[in-house]
Amino acid sequence: MLKSFFGGVHPPGFKTSTKNKNIRPAALPKKIILPLSQHTGSSAEPVVSPGDYVEAGAVIAKATGFISSNIHSSVSGKVLAIEPAAHPVLGKCRAIIIEPELQQKRLDSIKDCADSGFDPGKLNPADILDAVSSAGIVGMGGAAFPAHVKLSPPKNKKIDTLIINAAECEPYLTCDHRLLLERPIDIINGIKILANVLGVKKCIVGIEDNKCDSAEVIRNASILKSDIKVVPLHTKYPQGSEKQLIDAMLDKEVPSGGLPFDAGVVVHNVATALAIYEAVALNKPLYERVVTVSGDCIKDPANLLVKIGTPASELAAECGGFIKKPKKIIFGGPMMGVAQPSEDAPVIKGTSGILFLSKDIAGEYNEGVCIRCGACVRACPMYLEPTTIYYAAKKARFDIVNDLCALDCIECGACSFDCPARLELSGIIKYAKAMIKK
Amino acid sequence: MSMYTISPAPHIKSKDSTNRIMWFVVAAILPTAIAGVWIFGPHAAWLILASVAAAVLTEAALGRLMKKPVTVTDGSAVITGLLLACNLPAGAPVWIAVLGSFFAIAIVKCAFGGLGKNIFNPALAGRAFLMLSWPAHMTTWQNPRFWPDVVSSATPLAKNAVEIMGPGSKPSLWDMFIGNRGGCIGEVCVIAILVGAGFLLYKGYIKWYTPIVYILTVGILSRLAGGSFIFSILAGGLMFGAFFMATDMVTTPLTPGGQALFGLGCGIITFAIRKWGGYPEGVSYSILIMNAATPMIDRLTKRRVFGKKKR
Ligand code: SF4
Ligand code: SF4
């Protein structure tokens, strides 16, 4: 029996156009936009000024506080300005703009391969945490929570399990899948580093069963070197949501309002594990990542190794441009991603995909009326009643919305996806949540 | 103005729109309606057409009058018309069908606010209205056209409400299965009903919770009361009601648990009416009664939210 959670939906995968394509580096962009806030928490504070010269990998903005993150230049070149610029999630955000030079240079301290005799099990946990936090690593699956925070559980919580999230349940996205196929050993080393910091024995990798080839690769690689277990999961959305993943793999529910810590678990995504390996073993900060550039408007969809800060427009050009007029540009996947007003927004640390969708895929719908079909109720992985919350929110009865546990909504969009009346259930619920918190 | 559309996630939606679901339901009722016409002859076809036409026209006219967007294309009025006709005796006059559909759409559906807002199943409420107003027309059933006495027989099921609980009655089980018996247009041919229902179940447009619990409840209670399990579930309008009317989305509970409870309630009431009631057949009334109980069931069957202790 494949493991899974209760509820969920089955959107079409749309992964075939990129899942067999090797990761290739994207060309050097003409301009780099590095927002000071690319993570959950307080924004970073610039330590460079316009006119300065920086090398790739140099710190250009420093974390402010514990829940924050350093930001590094992804190229060598000249700082042009520090000013508000397009941001894929926030709309606008102060950013450091850099013009890359032709001959790229990166910090000498960054290595190409690990020292011989590198052993993730022998490292000192405090050194690892230091490396992770100074490398500016954040959760790369989307939420962008600073990784060192996720690796520092409160003293009173006992962590016994590390879950590596390789579910990649969002349609279109294949970057984690490709990483597993192309960099299995490095990822395994990253997982071992994580296990070391957390002091856990039990490491499990969750992969949806439609990505069996990557499950095989990682299993073979891990058998060679350790006792990391691979668990195939039912292909269902939102399998990659932390709470649903923990439920599926360990049969444990994270308590309402709680964190994975409360279930004795830490969850990290595949790309994050790799970034942590690179930070610890290669001394390389997080300044580039793999991004799936796809969608029915893109001529040649691809998995690209992208310098963080590269604007979407350059990546569209990199992939052969448009064969159809895009109706929507989405940062992230089609289920939870953010629609963009323009092609200006840059790739940030949490950007796993950029999609260019035509009206055939991302159609516009008029909201109808609820026919009480119950599809949203069956779809909700948090066991809520989306339709009831929706109508309470429309009447501005936020007290009722709160009683209906709207704050437990993980904003996965499964309810809206399955609603035949095309109600914007998750959109309204998200808004209602913000109103409750006010 | 931005070049690209900005709207909340998700940016893709499932294929199943309200319209698509409704028209698939229409398609699923068709085999039953066609079987009814085959069994009872052309007058049944006129009743079906008149009923559907009246339902659609009423909805269109009222939509116009109340200046609401025209919703007839969503197929729900067609469903109401079809279901109402299926609930009529094959010999009923055409004006009965027209009046029933008018009542169903105008009073039961639109007066409550239209699609999604009505409390009672429009077709069943329409039938109940006809039953109260013109009981003679509504309880004079016709025999299949292949029988020697095609002329209206006396109410075959009403003759003896207890009789349908036991195997002693007239038609054989096979006859009941293929529809070689008296009754309403849409309720006699069980095999056609199962074809349509199987299709809807396969497509996921109806779930098994309500109909299966409903049918089993009636069967088991009848068996416990000394009757026949198979006979009781084939008899009357149980199959048709369980698969096509107790599964109406608008007027039944939201959660799977609530839907099962709804089926259980329908089953108990149907059994009670059949055994002790004055009406020949309990299916319509039990579903209507449970429709009224739906808001309460919804409240009782709120689910435990993920990560919370049982409420
Ligand atoms: S209510 Fe929230 S958690 Fe439930 S399906 Fe909708 S978006 Fe997901
Ligand atoms: S899925 Fe849409 S139509 Fe169905 S019950 Fe939920 S809100 Fe209503």
Compute the separation of the termini of chain B in Å. Answer: 48 Å
Tally of alpha and pi helices of chain A: 14
What is the CA-based Rg of chain B, rounded?
20 Å
Principal-axis shape of chain A equals globular
CATH architecture of the domain at 122-282 in chain A: 3-Layer(aba) Sandwich
Strand content of chain A: 15-25%
Corresponding CATH superfamily of the domain at 122-282 in chain A = NADH-ubiquinone oxidoreductase 51kDa subunit
Number of helices, where a helix is a run of at least 4 consecutive DSSP H or I residues of chain B: 13
Low-confidence stretches of chain A: none
Please tally the β strands of chain B and state the result. 0
Helix content of chain A: 25-40%
Terminal Cα separation of chain A, in Å?
44 Å
Task: List ligands, each type once.
Answer: iron/sulfur cluster
Remind me, CATH topology of chain B? Ammonium transporter fold
Strand numbers in spatial order across the main sheet of chain A = 1-14-13-17-15-16
Membrane topology (chain B): Multi-pass membrane protein
Cofactor (chain B): FMN
Pfam family, one (chain B): NQR2_RnfD_RnfE
Subunit structure (chain B): The complex is composed of six subunits: RnfA, RnfB, RnfC, RnfD, RnfE and RnfG.
